[in-house]
Amino acid sequence: MPRLARKNTGMDREQRLRIAIQKTGRLTDHSLDLLSRCGLKYSRGKDQLLCYGENMPLDVLLMRDDDIPDLVQEDVCDLGIVGSNVVREKQLAQDAARTTPGFEVLQELDFGRCRLCIAVPDDFPWAGVGSIAGRRIATTYPNILADWLRSAGITAQIVTLSGAVEIAPRLGRAELICDLVATGGTLAANHLREAATVLECQAVLIRTPVPLSKPKEQWLDRIRLRIDGVQQVKESKYIMLHAPRSALPEIRRLLPGSESPTIIPLEGSPDRVAVHAVCRENVFWETLESLKLAGASALLVLPVEKMLA
Ligand code: PRP
Ligand code: ZN
User: Fold this and answer.
1) How far away, in angstroms, is 181 Cα from ligand 1 center?
2) Contact, 48 vs 213, CB < 8 A?
3) Quick check: is 66 in a domain?
4) Cα end-to-end distance, the chain, whole Å
5) For residue 242, is it within any domain?
6) What CATH number is associated with residue 283?
7) Residue 248's domain spans which residues?
8) Which of 24, 103, 188, 292 lies deepest, with the highest CB count within 10 Å?
9) Measured from the CB, is residue 72 less than 6 Å from ligand 1?
């Protein structure tokens, strides 16, 4: 890739920030979207591994998520966007090896929320966490799992895999798995169900602990301020709907990330109300369909441009 070769000079590393993000997976689109919302315009290199920042001294490296803490640690990148699950796993491994972490967590990014879960085959006789004792559990997060088992006082065998954990029970490599669950689609497709939560996770921004050159530190400060701005309004939506009063508890439960909706009586229909709420998460078609099933009608979703608490 000639462009990278030309740009990747010693001088450039002094001047340009480099951030690693997940190449393919749950965090990829959100990470690129966040950087775009922070104002970054980029062109993608031929090998699809490096995006060159055209209007900011910030280049984006697309990598396997599990490698991102190491890339920051080894100073290949100054910054990284990665799941807190990957960060935690790395930190626990480093604690065990008594080495100091070569990266710092700067902030949570409020996307890529998921949970690290114990999941069992559909026909597994689950009767609470005691059912784990003495079993084999396949995972790519052996340190987090070991830590959780220890604090739960459970003895079990950890089978460490590098991927495709969800097929381990079918292959007879383990009876249970410990893996990330976001929508639950992967579990369902593999006839598994969620049984216990080990860790709640989301994307975080990490940086090298090594001081950067002055221009790079200044750009990092600007980028972080822009991230804060993006987070204020990000996926907020204003949602309006009509509903029977009796459906309110279910509707409030379904409204994503809304604190206290405004409930307005509807003229001429004492049993029905209008509900207005700011949802601090994206509102998906699935949510609207569930709201409708719960009795809502006249659903309207509007973008929120600015918000002042
Ligand atoms: C995770 C996990 C599952 C998937 C679960 O992969 O390993 O494959 O997400 O999501 P779902 O519940 O919405 O189906 P991730 O993108 O984190 O990449 P990985 O392959 O590095 O684990
Ligand atoms: Zn991974």
Assistant:
1) 7
2) no
3) yes
4) 47
5) yes
6) 3.30.70.120
7) 237-303
8) 103
9) no
